[in-house]
């Protein structure tokens, strides 16, 4: 199994404010080894997929995808390990590790460090997600399908819809918002934009290759979704403007023009005929 951190030296480059290990002390890499394994498994299952992760591990040290992935792995490993790094199991139970002339950190400071590391982990997630479409085979993975299920495949939606005084972390908040966004996008698709067009826009948005005219429509759709999260309603006038824009550009939006949704906006034209049994004014 490929690993992205393979030595104490590599690990130390990603962790600030630490003392050098002296002879006789257990290197931090050895202490973190089981937590690094758990963190790698979580990153693969949640974000990269195993094939893509193994490929990322083979990238050069200067590759931005590798750097973002390594930082995320270390951040998650540290937040898992911090509560137990200063504890050892003795025959009589747990004890704190001797610190010689150093003063052991208080519980409050340790808790604050864990919270800080969680925030750093979320920053690493935010940095990694925009890079993943450029990683080998990622776009064909289940993880890509998860993030591509909405027009918000990154943590952007969290920054656009903050909750005052909320203690939720960005990653947790994203997981909370995602089902709601999926439902809202489905409503817009059925009533205005068509499932066919929305599916195509999501795929192009995830890949980052939206043509300018379609990019503008996605920008407006996302604005409506964010507004709904704030106000609890869509702006029907703005949605009508979006649809009219699409209606006048069949070559740019063929998915919409061939959909059942499009027929909702093109009702049949009634013409009076002399031989008809009724006459409409």
Question: In terms of topology, how is this protein built?
Answer:
Blueprint: H1 8-12, H2 28-48, H3 50-57, H4 64-81, E1 87-90, E2 93-96, H5 107-128, H6 142-147, H7 156-160, H8 170-193, H9 195-207, H10 212-231, H11 236-247, H12 254-257, H13 260-263
Antiparallel strand pairs: 1-2
Structure, explained:
This protein has 281 residues and is mainly alpha-helical. The chain has 13 helices and 2 strands. Strands 1-2 form a two-stranded antiparallel ribbon. Helix 8 packs antiparallel against helix 9 (195-207). The chain is elongated. Mean pLDDT is 84; it is low at 87-95 and 276-281.
Structural class: mainly alpha
Number of strands: 2
Percentage of residues assigned to helices: 55-70%
Name the beta content range. under 5%
Largest sheet strand order? 1-2
Distance between the termini: 76 Å
H/E series, N to C? HHHHEEHHHHHHHHH
Count of DSSP H/I helices: 13
Rg (C-alpha, Å): 26 Å
Major sheet attributes: 2 strands, antiparallel
Shape designation: elongated
Low-confidence stretches: 87-95, 276-281
Could you tell me the mean pLDDT? 84
């Amino acid at each position: 199994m490929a690993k992205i951190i393979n030595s104490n030296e590599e690990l130390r480059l990603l962790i600030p404010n630490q003392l050098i290990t002296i002879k006789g002390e257990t290197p931090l890499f050895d202490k973190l080894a089981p937590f690094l394994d758990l963190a790698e498994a979580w990153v693969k299952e949640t974000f990269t997929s195993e094939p893509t992760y193994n490929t990322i591990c083979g990238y050069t040290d200067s590759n931005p995808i590798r750097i973002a992935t390594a930082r995320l792995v270390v951040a998650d490993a540290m937040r898992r390990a911090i509560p137990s790094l200063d504890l050892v199991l003795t025959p009589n139970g747990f004890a704190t590790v001797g610190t010689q002339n150093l003063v052991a950190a208080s519980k409050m400071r340790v808790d604050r460090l864990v919270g800080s590391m969680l925030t750093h982990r979320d920053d690493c997630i935010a940095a990694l997600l925009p890079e993943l479409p450029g990683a080998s085979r990622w776009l064909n993975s289940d993880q890509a399908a998860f993030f591509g299920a909405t027009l918000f495949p990154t943590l952007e939606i969290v920054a656009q819809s903050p909750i005052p005084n909320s203690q939720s972390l960005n990653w947790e908040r994203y997981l909370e918002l995602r089902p709601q966004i999926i439902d809202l996008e489905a409503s817009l698709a059925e009533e205005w934009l068509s499932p066919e067009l929305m599916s195509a826009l999501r795929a192009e948005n995830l890949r980052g290759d939206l043509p300018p005219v379609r990019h503008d429509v996605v920008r407006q759709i996302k604005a409506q979704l964010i507004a709904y999260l704030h106000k609890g309603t869509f702006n029907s006038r703005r949605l009508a403007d979006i649809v009219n824009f699409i209606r006048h550009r069949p070559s740019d939006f063929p998915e919409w023009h061939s959909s059942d949704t499009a027929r909702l906006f093109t009702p049949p034209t009634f013409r009076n005929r002399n031989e008809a049994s009724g006459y409409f004014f």
